[in-house]
Amino acid sequence: MRQATSARFWPVSRAKSSLKTWHGHCIIPDSTIRVLYLKERNMRKVQQGFTLIELMIVVAIIGILAAIALPAYTDYTGKAQLSEGITLTGGVKTAVAEAYNQTGALTGLDGGTNGLPANVASGAGKYADSITTTAGVIVVTMKATGLSACAQGKTVTLTPTPGAATTDPLKWACTSTATCKPASCS
Question: Where are the domains of the chain?
């Protein structure tokens, strides 16, 4: 096969090395080589990185997600911290129920009397500062610092309600002054 000598056609051996094929004896038109070379060069330019607008969109999305997630996380943390206060009252609730079954009345069921644990003035737990019992009502006061903003210095109150008979179990109502209350507390 003879090679063209026209200026319009170049043999493959004279083309760019990246455009060589296994059949070097074929003749590729000059315009095809230019098109292939330009496509290869443009592809290299496209893969250089992200544009400024793409980066700004990503930053905006992250900002929106953070604006939504932070308040939800703060509420979740506050609920968990208040739950510690409710959990710490488990032993006191049992003692109040036993004393009520023995005495038949909630009056006089104060911390440190009738077999109830003594009141804890401070340092009751990691997040709870104090636990007091008065007439069977248990009040947990949370610490003023180091907690989620919705739980700082707030109280959780557990109020017993007697059943129809003194042998019926006490029913406990939970209330709190915090805005981020656990599900078990209204």
Answer: 53-176
